[in-house]
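Hi R.,

Here's the chain you asked about this morning:
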Amino acid sequence: MPVYCITGTNRGLGLKFAPQLAQSSDNTIIATTRSLDSDLTELKTCDTGNVASIHSFVKEVAQLLGGSRKIDVLLNSAGVNLGSSQSSLTLGPDELHKQMDINVIGPAKVVELLLDAGLLSSDVRILNMSSGLGSMQRSSEIKPRKCAGYSISKAGLNMLTVHQSEDLKPHLPGAVVIAMDPGWVKTSMGGDGAVLEPHESIGGMLRVLHGLRSEDSGLYYQYNGDRIPW
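And here is the predicted structure, written out as tokens:
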């Protein structure tokens, strides 16, 4: 009876994860969204760009699980791509700060606060939703470069993954943390030219996630299981 916690389910891939996981009645799914402006009234609010909101969400999860159950799989899928036309020479501070808040600090605090509250299972699987644009090697091969601020924030998320994979060991020896590139998916963020259907990306990511071993912690994967160069 695994418990899944998914951030960023108001749109995009986060929104598509829940229906696939809900196909099994054994799964308990805790899905979060930044706001409830749309018709998503069954989701919990958690703005991962706001630490106070994360604190409030963790308290809600503790009440929901009732002290006897813990999160087995955490999908940190909340993320934003702002100012995608900005280059390293035209970065807007406001856009970059917000991307770092949501794409890096958010996943860091979600893991930290859930751990402090004793809500992560001893062998929790944590997927930090990255991007191929977070790879320095892959980005160096793209000409012209694109999405500078987003790329920088996803590279930061990748480094966070490396640190979390080690820092969690004394607390949760069986924990496995990975960064994942979902591929270029047909979502609002993927935009024109995207090649993957959401169910292909999510199905692949879940296969990788469910097949993780302890030695995989701290690695960087593509949705199909291939390793990605840092």
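One quick note: The first strand starts at residue 3 and ends at 7.

Cheers,
M.
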